Amino acid sequence: MSLPHEAYAGLVSRLVALAIDIAAVAAGAAVAVGLAVGGSQMMIRETPGWVGPVVGVAIGLLPVVYFSASWWIVGQTPGGMAMGIAVRNGGGEPLGLARSILRTVFGLAFAPIWLLGMVLVLVDARRRGLIDVACGTVVVYVPQPHADDLPVSEP
User: Fold this and answer.
1) Is residue 67 exposed (0-12), middle (13-18) or buried (19+ Cβ within 10 Å)?
2) Residue 127 — left, alpha, or beta (φ > 0 → left; ψ -120 to 50 → alpha)?
């Protein structure tokens, strides 16, 4: 698939979307900890020993589920939706589950490389970062509907 250069998401859009997603994951983790610890203390006046490990595993899985499910089911994370960008495979189609998980695990396991690899966005014809090259993905701007394209309903 070949799109005009402008159809591929630029560096700033991608970084802002990532910042929104990091904030969302951090907020989700804070809520999970608060509910688990605060809830157990309210109910039984102490936090059982098993709560810490269970919450730790849940918080560890949260970013994996957040990114993988977003890219697989919708093609966009909430940060991507806010910035009007979506992740697609090299052919422009939505990602399958396996590629979504691969992109997520690669990105989270090598986060500093993911961020440094974003420099490639500035020179690649399809504005792909290192993670995109490694996983066979592209990040594109999602066409926004115009008011003239929206259906009009009569009362």
Assistant:
1) buried
2) left
Nearest to 13 by CA among 101, 112, 80: 80
Phi, psi of 85 (to 5 degrees): -125, 155
- Range list of β-strands (E), 2-155: 85-89, 137-141
pLDDT, tens digit (0-9, with 9 covering 90-100), for 10-40:
999 999 999 999 999 999 988 888 777 777 7
Contact 107, 84 (CB under 8 A): no
Q: In the numeric block, which tokens belong to residue 83?
A: 């910035």
- Report how far apart, in Å, the C-alpha atoms of 143 and of each of 63, 133, 146, 149 are: 27, 23, 9, 12
pTM exceeds 0.90: no
